[in-house]
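Exam revision sheet. Question 4 asks you to relate a sequence to its structure. Input first:
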Amino acid sequence: MFDPSRDQARRFFIDAWRKHLARDVVSPLEDAAIRLVALHPEYHGLLAEGETALEREWTPESGEANPFLHLSLHLAVEEQLAIDQPPGLRAAFEALLARQGDRHAALHVLLECLGETLWRAQKSQSPPDGGAYVECVRRKAG
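Answer key, structure tokens:
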């Protein structure tokens, strides 16, 4: 199983964006990351900083969201949607998308549900509840 360190995950996004700007050949995973970064122009400058961005910390107290965590969660939900895991997630997302009308906005709602699911799992020291995750998305789809 792929389990990168914090710096490896950050470097992946930095390198993918650097390759994009240089018009270098990228892997399919890098291409997916580049498409996600393109949706977040507020992160372009940070990624262009390169190595400097590896050292930065984002804490809840600072009030800033961690852009690398945000992008990593985006990649995770894209994979979940592609393989419909947990089962029913894709259908719930499609209903949410129909209600939202904007894919990126709908993805952010999905990220909220994923974050809530992960928080509950961490709090209870148990595996994430896929059913609760899908149900959260269904509720948000109304």
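Marking note for examiners. The radius of gyration is 16 Å.
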